[in-house]
Amino acid sequence: MIRNLNILLIFTSVFMLAGVYALKFSIENTASERTALIAQIDSQEGELSILKADEAVLNQPGHIEPIIRRHELVLAIAPVKQEQFGAFEDLPMRPVQAKPNSAAMNALFTALESGVDPIDAILELEGIE
Amino acid sequence: MAVTTEEFGSTIALDGARKARGNLTQNRIRWMVLALVLGFGLVGGRLIQLGMVVPDSTIEGQARDVITATRPPILDRNGLEMAVDIRVPSLYAEPRRIIDVEEAVRALRTVLPDLDEDWLRTRLTGDKGFVWVQRELSPAIQERVMRLGIPGIDFITESKRFYPGMSEASHILGSTNIDNQGIAGIERHMDTEDVALLQELGLARGNALAPVELSVDMRVQHVMHEQLVDAMTRYKAIAAAGVMMDVHTGEIVALASIPDFNPNEPATALVKDSFNRITAGIFEPGSIFKTVTMAGSLDSGAVQITDRFDARYGIRFGRFTIDDFHGKHTILSLPEVYKYSSNIGTIRVMQAMGKDNYRAFLTTMGFDARVQFELPEMRLPTVPKELSEVGAATASFGHGLSVSPLHMVTAYAAFVNGGNYIAPTLYRRDQAEASLLYRRVIKPETSAEIRYLMRLNALEGSGSQMNKAALGYRVGGKTGTAEKVVDGRYSSNKVTNFFGSAFPLDNPRYAMVIMVDEPRAENPQSGTTAGWNAGAVTGRIVQRVAPMLGIAPDFSEVLDDNLVPPQLR
Fold first, then answer.
1. What CA–CA distance (Å, rounded) separates B566 from B445?
2. Residues in Cβ contact with B351 at an 8 Å cutoff, skipping those fewer than 6 apart
3. A93, B24, B304, B390 - which has most CB atoms within 10 Å?
4. Which tens digits make up the pLDDT trace of B503-521?
């Protein structure tokens, strides 16, 4: 009876021992994975910070202006002059028109209803299918 | 006779073999238990000891937290980065782990040839746990050093401050030292507030801190910087500086001073003459100070805009006679005094107010204290406590006292915004916040008269050079040509030129002061007075920045006519 119990206990111990070892190694594994991930995140954050800094440099007016100056002639651009500014108020009012041509509109709608689209004739004339 | 056991003395008991063995086993077990307890006690004790040890996180006297501490990014008013943190590798060594110092030195110098051999050898010898070898390297160098595979040599990631605008806003931003502490400019100011505390607590690591928004507009800053650099070469000047301020909120939109430095290389900040002339430079303001005299006198009621002043003869003070530069030598109306920049007329205007009242007005305008501002680089203005008759006379046209351009722009802002003094700031501040800080210095009517005078001077007076470029933006301003004192005398060929301005004067939004130090004539037809340089620079800046600031050009003369005070119509 005691002997059986002892045998059982010994097997349990061995089993537990193996389990604990396995656990230990798996934890070590996870820990090193974690360390590697932290290092990776760190280096990526570092790269990201450099990329952001690059972006900030590229966005600076002081960086953009020389580029514009280089291409000024080719693109035919120049700093805006005061005379070039306009306002909506400066636009003339729409000229007073005659009444809409309701007869022509009615003719168009009846043509469309009967299945004849006047645009087709124009397209045909231009040679567009 | 009875036999008792007593008679035999004590009995002798002999333990049987089994019992004797049992006793021995018990003894052994006791010893074993003791040994085990001692063993476990030892292990437990060591564990406790290890638990008590505080890991050493200091790096050459500084905590690791400080080394890797980050600073909040600095943005301009449109959200463009002006300063960001980048992560860079720094090379350190653990001399106690280095096996062969000679080999390590040789190998390291193949990648970093700039390192001194002897210095490196002494650095790597010894039993120290941590020494820096070189800080803030590039990732490429890190890669090459790692390939060398020297034991006891490793990298740590540090954060380094980087300024994408390079030198454009150098005087605003200042710079940081290698340990990420602000040493100048707004960086230093941020440290005095809360960043340093965060870093000390170790909270400022890695994770993004809330960005700091400045009032500066990088587009305007760029134009101002570019135009000042241009002015330096165009007029062969020794220095140029400029500042633009929102007259209603006190926000500084642009501030530049040339020569400047590259904040990415903090050592360049120490170069002579690269100080911030706007805040830390004090100058005799010259005629731009006449605006102050006019504002004070008109506001006191001692003079009216319709008054006339006798400027036919120079004014004598004992041996001195003060005369006019472009002498008209006639009787001048007050707007003419301003337009022709008449010293005689200005003295008469000041005398009508009285020299003590005039001195008191200078205090009201904050000319005898430092301007409340974030930048730590400041110098006290020198304004005499008491003004003598002649002292008051020269002060009225900006001689015999020295103030910073920041003082002048703040005063100009107050003169045109309706008469409210508002201290400048580099942080965002909206109209509501600003109006709580307003301090009334002149009446709104006086402010309207000053706006008229400034615009008049641009249309007909010394500001016409400026107005040519900035046509349509309703700029007005005053020139100032201050002769420098050379060997105790005022020199006529070494001058500091100023242009104080505001625009658009029909509804003022920005005030600006431009300074050009010791300019020469651009060509034989031009002169060295302020209208030719500081004024022209102002005009070119306004022409380029006004559209960015949402000010549309308007050529209608009615806007200028509206500025004319009713008494003069």
1. 11
2. B392, B393
3. B390
4. 899 999 999 999 999 998 8
